[in-house]
Amino acid sequence: MTQSISILGSTGSIGRQTLEVAEEMHLRVAAITARTGGARFEEQIRAFHPELAVLTDETAAADLRVRVADQNTKVLGGAEALLEAAALPAADTLVTAVVGTAGLRPTIAGIRAGKRIALANKETLVCAGRIVMAEAAAHRAEIVPVDSEHSAVFQCLQGIADRSEIRRILLTCSGGPFFGMPKSQIAGKKASDAIKHPNWSMGAKISVDSATLMNKGLEIIEAMRLYDLPLEKVRPVIHRQSVVHSLVELCDGAVLAQLGTPDMRLPIRYAFTWPKRGESRAEPLDLFTCGAISFSEPDRTAFPCLALAEQAAEQGGRACCVLNAANEIAVAAYLEDRIGFYDIPALVERALGAFPGAGDGTLDEILALDGSVREAVRGYLAEDKR
Ligand code: NDP
Ligand code: MG
Question: Measured in angstroms, how far is the CA atom of residue 120 from the centroid of ligand 2?
Answer without folding.
Answer: 9
